Amino acid sequence: MVLDRETALRKPDEWMTGVSTAAVIGHVRPDGDCVGSCLGLRAYLLAAYGIEADVYLEAFPDSFRILPGAQDVNPSRPADYHYDLLFALDCSEWERAGAGRERAAFSDRLICIDHHQSNPGFGDDCVLYPGYSSCCEVLYSLMREEKMNRDTAICLYLGMVHDTGVFQYSSVTPETMARAGKLISFGFDFPRLITSTYYEKSYSRQQLTGLALQKSRITPDGNGIWTSLSLKEMEDCRSSSMETDGIAEALRITKGIDYAILLYQTDETGFKGSFRSKGGTDVGKLAACFGGGGHKLASGCSFEETDPERIMERVNAAMLELNKGSAV
Ligand SMILES: [Mn+2]
């Protein structure tokens, strides 16, 4: 059940009453907000209630290892180990819960804390603040500032940084900035935290991005930019399709264009397409033309075709049709 805000604020003390074991889980393919939320809540439960919660997470980027508590994730517990409380954080639905989800069967109470608009409100208690910048910001609003410590602050700050694109997305409110300001007052090297977890890229990733940008071309409608990376090109950069995220975004910020397309080869039979838009083009609809999915600003799909030029002929044709439709 989704709690109203007033009830939600009273809940943490109630949840923690008489609790001796608790676990915290996040979603599949954990991102900064997910890892920051899980470790931030762990640090807070220890500082505020003296409870050492277990955190279960799927593999996450090595750069997040600098977070307090990152070394303690995925403790070895018997499969039927009993938890009084199981927190699911940053999961837009129960189906997206990642490592540790099977623990729910041996937990007394499931508590969902999230910020996704689409969350149906799962769990015995659900604190859902849609529109909040990050799950970390929802957690912040549930915590007592006087009980937070530096470990909590570092983790929550990282999550806020990552889910807001370093405080640039429209989800950022004056309250977000005030909370972030309070967090840095705990004293930690936030410039290094942002650089090492958000901006820093491996050499191979830089090489791959450079190649993709250099090869890029403007689409016939003059509105988009596209590029492609073959398996051989990725290999030549000593890289792989694992390192292609971020390239479509690097294309998207090109001045004077509205949408960006990255095609990268996945195997001998096909490519994947990653689409990004500045807002004038609905790339979710574009991806849907090819059986893909996503949102207006970011989407993707697969192509069973090994010639990127031929793929783009189809994409350009689909774009033309979509524009015809919207012009009526
Ligand atoms: Mn999030």
Task: Please characterize this protein's 3D structure.
This protein has helices at residues 5-16, 32-49, 135-142, 150-163, 174-184, 190-199, 203-215, 231-236, 247-252, 283-288, 308-327; strands spanning 22-25, 54-56, 83-89, 107-114, 125-128, 217-218, 224-229, 259-267, 270-277, 293-294, 298-303. Strands 6-7-8-9-11-10 form a 6-stranded mixed β-sheet, with helices on both faces. Strands 2-1-3-4-5 form a 5-stranded parallel β-sheet, with helices on one face. Helix 3 (135-142) packs antiparallel against helix 4 (150-163), helix 4 (150-163) packs antiparallel against helix 5 and helix 4 packs across helix 6. The protein folds into 2 domains: 5-199, inorganic pyrophosphatase (n-terminal core); 203-327, Roll (Diaminopimelate Epimerase, Chain A, domain 1), CATH 3.10.310. The chain is elongated. It is 38% helix and 18% strand. It has 328 residues and is of the alpha/beta class. The structure holds manganese (II) ion. Manganese (II) ion binds at residues 33, 90, 115, 134-135, 163.
